Give the backbone structure.
Amino acid sequence: MYNNFATHMNEVEKNAENLPVRTESDIQADSKQITQEEIQRDFDYYMAQCIAEKLKSEGLITVDEFNKLTALNRRTILPMNVEILPKIR
């Protein structure tokens, strides 16, 4: 488990290196109220990913199928900040 976590964190760090640095004024200019719909989409995405992860961990789907489900979930559910989620290989 720790090895998977360390690998995941390395991936998160690599993705973070490619993100542009934003200033306080950039952040304030882009600030907006989060809607109930956006919160619901994030929750729906989280639940879909939990189910997919469970299926993968129990050997009911392959890693490739898990990655396809993840990509499909991102396209159809549209969670907030999808652009900063780890890349699918």
Observations:
- The mean pLDDT is 79.
